Amino acid sequence: MDDPRPTNIPEYSVSEISGAVKRTLEGTFGRVRVRGEITELKRYPSGHIYFSLKDEGAKLAGVIWKSSVSRLGLEPENGVEVIALGKITAYGDRSTYQLIVDRMEYAGAGALLARIEMLRVKLAAEGLFELARKRPFPLLPQVIGVITSERGAVIQDIRTTIERRFPRRILLWPVPVQGEGAAKAVCEALRGLCSLPRHGIPRPDVLIVARGGGSLEDLMAFNDESVVRAVAECHIPLISAVGHETDTTLIDFVADRRAPTPTAAAEFAVPARVELATDLQHKAARLTNSLTRLLSEAHLHLRGAARGLPDLPALVGTARQRLDDRVARLTLSLPNLLARQRAAFVRAAEQLSGALRHAVAHRAANAAIVLSRLTDAPLHAAIREGRARLKGLAGHLESVSYEAVLRRGYALVGDSTGTPITTASAVRPGMDLRIRFRDGEVRATADCSAEPRQRSLLL
Fold first, then answer.
1. Domain range spanning residue 423?
2. In terms of C-beta distances under 8 Å and separation of at least 24 residues, what long-range contacts does 62-68 make, across chains too?
3. Whole-prediction pTM value?
4. Which of 61, 112, 142, 425 has the fewest CB atoms within 10 Å around its CB?
5. Does residue 247 fall inside a structural domain?
6. Are residues 95 and 38 in the same domain?
7. What is the mean pLDDT of residues 243-253?
């Protein structure tokens, strides 16, 4: 049964209660910062992100509208402890309350470091930090690309250092170096500089990514995974100079070289002109000394080798003198031989005449007695025998004379003075020759266009 007793409790509709709760929540809390661990994160096709924040005792629903995702400040993931900035409101359709988030940051340095370490281990496992990926730097780049803020001391330090060491062209791509959109801008700058055409704006030979010091939160753009991967994909040698000497970001591991400061990065990019000139002078002096030493050693070696070689001019002179002597002896030997043979013949004839006279004188006493029995046959026989011997000797002498050799078809070759030449090697190209045949003498010029045994004469 219904209670018949009257009551003064007010009556509300569901919508009125829901609206009152919503107004109470929004009016009481306004904007709040809530710390918790992200869980149950879902991304919807509409672009909105739904999640929950939890701690040891409770859980709070949260939502990030599509319009706030790009300004959020970090990439939300399950298991990450964050501090979410937004406002508390109620969702009457489900009788729930939720946190509408428009900004988010990591909860303290410990959480940031843990996040960075997780990403570092992941990227290291993919091989992005291997030394084999490091690219060599040119000795003297023509253009140096710089990715940093256009305001501040960083770009001024880099310009001053390069101008002092070795003036080079600097191509600046200005980017925000912290805060919302910094990571995206750095990635676009890296890809833009790497894709410059060969003509028009010059493509840098070396890149420097730099910013000054700051807190860990200020440097988070250079710990972003997209920036690290963009550095790994860059085909231009790159120097990272983010923060101070004690600061370390993930792009330091993937860059081709890390500089503790922007000034040090500029010093790494270009050599000192004075030091380069001094080194060049030292190397030139060393090269000159080395060449001098090599020439000296070669000269000493050549002199030593020359002492071990025979005296070729002396040998040639001796051979020429021996040849001249033998030619002279040959020239004189034939007349001398003929003269000796003639002298022998004369002596033989005189001996024969003496023997005949002696025989005649010896037998003259008995001539009268034996004259009747003697005849002149023995005398004629002796005379014939003597003549035959004389003829044989004369024929022998004639056969060994050079005139007889010429009559057999040979020729006597001599130089322009008539001195006999006995070897082909003694004939030089263009040499004037005198060739004597049995019936006369002709003049010729040596051709020497063939091998020594095939040398020809131009008559």
1. 402-459
2. 62/86, 62/98, 62/99, 62/100, 62/101, 63/98, 63/99, 63/100, 63/101, 64/100, 64/101, 64/102, 64/104, 65/100, 65/102, 68/101, 68/102, 68/103
3. 0.49
4. 425
5. yes
6. yes
7. 85
